[in-house]
Amino acid sequence: MAVLRPYFDEALEALKQNMLDMFDYVITAFDEMFHMLESNDKTLAGHLIEADRRVNVQEQRINEDAFLIILKQCPVASDLRRIMTAVKIANDLERIADYTVNVAVYVLKTDHENQKYRTQMCAYRPPLMNMLRLIKEAYATQDVALAEDVSEQDYAVDTLYQRDIEHFIAIARQETDDEAAEAARSLPVIKHFERAGDHVTNIAEHIVFLHSGEHKELN
């Protein structure tokens, strides 16, 4: 028996709200991650590792809800895109959240202040936080133009990454053992930031697909 459309719409709206909640979890985690880097707060590092479990649970919830909607409602193409886009975006958000855990582990394993490198890492805060907040807005409003604009902002992250990777590699090759080791340990952190920007671009592509039904490579 066919399910009445209002109930279907309610299920889709609940799925969207769960997605917006997941965006908020990830945005909060990233903001706290940069605060942790600024302050070398190891207590906050432990909190970030624990908080990642909430993101994982939320992704699982979204996946299960999406499966049940498809199973019970047999959605048509446009509605199916909404459901599958949510699943894909949730996966990207979960990957972004994983990077906060990796950076937290970096802080926990760093025995001294290491302020020089941490300050350099915090240069990624403005572009990444802006991208995360705006891509949430683009998803909430299905604003394709905004999504495409956010993907263009990834160039700022890529520029920082290219600058820093060259700088850190040069230090690792030329400086004393301790200094070289610190530079080498910092390389994966900035790689996490670069990958986070890539995942935001993926989300932008999913939003474009949601609107048009076509896969468009951005950035």
* Strand segment tally: 0
Tally of individual domains:
1
CATH class (first level) name: Mainly Alpha
Strand content: under 5%
SSE topology:
Layout: H1 5-39, H2 42-73, H3 77-109, H4 115-121, H5 125-141, H6 144-174, H7 177-212
Helix pairs in contact: 1-2, 1-3, 1-5, 2-3, 3-7, 5-6, 5-7, 6-7
What features would you describe in this structure?
The chain has helices spanning 5-39, 42-73, 77-109, 115-121, 125-141, 144-174, 177-212. Helix content is 87%, strand content 0%. It contains seven helices and no strands. Helix 1 (5-39) packs antiparallel against helix 2, helix 1 (5-39) runs parallel beside helix 3 and helix 5 (125-141) runs antiparallel to helix 6. The chain has one domain: Phosphate transport system protein phou homolog 2, domain 2 (Methane Monooxygenase Hydroxylase, Chain G, domain 1). The longest helix is centred in the C-terminal third of the chain and has 36 residues, at 177-212. It has 219 residues and is mainly α. The model has no long low-confidence stretch (mean pLDDT 90).
